[in-house]
Amino acid sequence: MNPKMIRSLKAFTRTVELNSMSAAANELHMTVSAISQQLQRLENDNGISLFHRNTRSLSLTEAGQVFYQSCLDMLSIAAKNQERWDQLTNQPQGQIKIIAPVGFGGGLLSEPLKQLQQEFTNVSFQLHMTDEPIDLITAGADLAIRIGPLADSTLYARHLADWHMVPCIAAEHPAAKNPIKSFEDLPEGCFIGHIPSLPNKDFPKPKVLLNNMQTVVQLTLDGVGYALLPEPEIKHYIESGRLLRLLPEWEGSPYSVHAVLPIKDNIPAKTERTIEVLSHFFHRLQ
């Protein structure tokens, strides 16, 4: 399919899915004016109006709804053809968009990305770091890294690794100067909790509750309290002495790390290879 036509179809489908020309322009690295021109060209070429427009909203006409479904089919065929070509030439191209938890931006993705950049010289990578749930299809992502239980059974997941949460406290926290040999010795009223994490019967009700693990780590480092932290993310802080691991004999239930995909079959080779590299690296951190 003509690259210009693919560009126009992507501009149209992402505008529909994001319900915004400016959002589509931002994601596709285009100007709003360029998106508008692409949509106008599609309407002129087809001789139909694709959108109902007013100053506040954008909605599909009946013809636009039919055309949207056709666009999805055409883009799927184009992607499969590109994938077959990539496999024949052994030169994957394009972009891989990955959604990952904010805490992974602290270095957990550096080594995998270095390896993938060396292997895929014609592939670019876009990372979206967030702890909030995001619909992969709407976001146009190739895969998402998720930790803990998967609530959405419609997702297609690949297991990457099992990690442990370890209780830690800042070395400068006053309670760190006291011997802590059992749960009864834990300081009262300063447990920092993480909302997505599973509740643990061994620990008290959190005094501070957050939805961002990176902030939980930072508050622990700053001496606000103690917390259950993901071992791979804070191992270097323990080794440097900034954090102390409490109750070293205690081992809680592991939490799983998954690669979540928007599709089950015909996974592009570049996406499959990305999952392999992530799995290999994450297993080394166990």
Q: Which sequence of SSEs, written as H and E, runs from N to C?
A: HHHEEHEHEHEEEEEHEHEEH
What's the overall average pLDDT, rounded? Answer: 86
Helix content: 40-55%
Q: In terms of structural class, how would the helical and strand content be classed?
A: alpha/beta
Report how far apart the termini are.
Answer: 45 Å
Order of neighbouring strands in the sheet with most strands: 4-3-5-12-6
Number of helices: 9
Strand portion: 15-25%
Computed over alpha carbons, the radius of gyration is 23 Å
**How many E-type strands?**
12
Low-confidence stretches: none
Query: How would you describe the shape?
Result: elongated
What does the main sheet amount to? Answer: 5 strands, mixed
Report on this structure.
This protein is α/β, with parallel strands linked by helices and 286 residues long. The protein is built from nine helices and twelve strands. The strands form three sheets. Strands 4-3-5-12-6 form a five-stranded mixed sheet, with helices on one face. The protein has a five-stranded mixed sheet with strand order 9-8-10-7-11, covered by helices on one side. A two-stranded antiparallel sheet has the order 1-2. The longest helix has 28 residues, at 62-89. The radius of gyration is 23 Å and the shape is elongated. The protein starts with a helix and ends with a helix. The mean pLDDT is 86.
